[in-house]
Amino acid sequence: MKFLPALTDCLRQSLERSRNFLSDGLNAVWSLGGVVDEALLEELEELLISADLGADVAREFLELVREEARHGRVSTPEDLRSTLGRFLEEALAGAVAPLALDQRPSVILVLGVNGGGKTTTCGKLAAALKGDGKSVLLAAADTFRAAAIDQLEAWGKRVGVEVIHQAPGSDPAAVVFDAAKAAVARGVDVLIVDTAGRLHTKSNLMEELAKLKRVVGRQLPGAPHESLMVLDATTGQNGLAQAKTFHAGVGLTGLILTKLDGTAKGGIVVRIHRELGLPIKLVGTGERVEDLQPFDPKVFVGGLLPE
User: Fold this and answer.
1) Above 70 in pLDDT, residue 28?
2) For every residue of the chain, which 3-state class applies, written as one string?
3) What is the pTM of this model?
């Protein structure tokens, strides 16, 4: 996908709080004595857990540091940063995967709890795909919130993409049915479906989302081609628990991480990928239309760690 600003610059700016947190922490750890001993490793473990990398990832990295120190390859704070950088890049190597857009129309279900930036992400994604020369259609299937329909329509006008919608309170499956029909009739390349993050009824959210998948699958065999959860990076452990619930209930194909600029715990990205085993397809790096970027582990780690 095409974007105006350089990914490196955007991601570096959005990770400033996390980078400063790690920079100050690594300096404090090394100032304990400047040698890799158990006292330093204990402080390093606490720092990494505080950065939301998680205990398992932290312990794995400590073993690597012990091994590198035995061979004389960690003797300066720069060595420690470099070792951490290599470790994180390797931990995230399997997180990269392109959007599955080979079919026409390709259907992308955008999932997640309310407040995570789901509807905004739909608009940004539509703009990015349109900028790539693809024809796009949006579907407002979060019919339980009138504000969500209005917000998606506003995004549609902003980026020049039509929105299929019905009145608030309508059956979301009916919206998806109409949208799939419209996508085929108009020969569009991509249909993006904004879904509910909670319900005002007693019905189960996962059952409702599974129903949407069945409806679109009947209209377009093989669809949805992507079921992406928008995950607010600032929610940390709660966000990870949410993602596990959505993955178990609906079956996710990947993640879109938003609000990386709002947290000092960017390590959650590594933890999310390691614990869920899902690719991170896109990251949100700010408020602008173009602030949605394909995930790149090398660029991410470069923005996360101090120079």
Assistant:
1) yes
2) CCCCCCHHHHHHHHCHHHHHHHHHHHHHHHCCCCCCCHHHHHHHHHHHHHCCCCHHHHHHHHHHHHHHHHCCCCCCHHHHHHHHHHHHHHHCHHHCCCCCCCCCCEEEEEECCCCCCHHHHHHHHHHHHHHCCCCEEEEECCCCCHHHHHHHHHHHHHHCCCEECCCCCCCHHHHHHHHHHHHHHHCCCEEEEECCCCCCCCCCHHHHHHHHHHHHHHHCCCCCCEEEEEEEHHHHHHHHHHHHHHHHHCCCCEEEEECHHHCCCCCHHHHHHHHHCCCEEEEECCCCCCCEEECCHHHHHHHHCCC
3) 0.90
